[in-house]
Amino acid sequence: MNVPRGTIQRYADLVHRWNPRIQLFAPSDLNAFETRHFADGLEPLTYVPGGAERHVDFGSGGGIPLVPMTIAMPGLHHVGVEADRRKAAFLNAVARELSLNVEIRAERLEDLAPQDADVVTARAFAPLVRTIPLLRRHLRVGGRAILQKGRRWREEVEEANDDLDAFELRDYPTATSGDGRILVLDRMR
Ligand SMILES: C[S@@+](CC[C@H](N)C(=O)[O-])C[C@H]1O[C@@H](n2cnc3c(N)ncnc32)[C@H](O)[C@@H]1O
Asked: Which positions in this protein are listed as binding S-adenosyl-L-methionine (predicted)?
């Protein structure tokens, strides 16, 4: 994926400027922002189905994967949902300074009107058992969720078992986050 280096640098500069105040990322990770975080935010692109129009990112925080995906796929309508108002203000600042076409909703997903998304992403968001009811609310039938999970992904899948009835689940390795995994859930009904 060809993302202009200047754009990544401007995003990284904003992260460095805001991070001491609102801790968007662990300070120890910030030196490797481009390889540790930005690259991670490009991984879901491979799994976005053709024809998708509306993308909703759950718990966008510092903007991964929302910001890389918005830069790389400007043709989609992107919505970032972040309950923490300070983080949502940061995301709005990124959108303004990088001229990104993204809508930021400073709300809890539980309170947000159903989004009818074609694609939902979430990275380091919440266990599957907590995420699935939110997918039922915001992901349309026939749509796809792309979830970036840490090393506990297998336990999360086992724990969610019955709740996964309405979804077809596949898992994929990730090049950028060690023993994490990408879970792709297609909503069947
Ligand atoms: C661990 S952070 C991950 C942020 C980002 N996706 C990343 O990987 O860097 C999880 C974020 O989800 C937000 N969040 C948690 N529960 C939420 C909810 N119910 N509705 C909206 N945002 C929520 C938190 O405020 C937090 O910023």
From this structure: 59, 109-110, 123
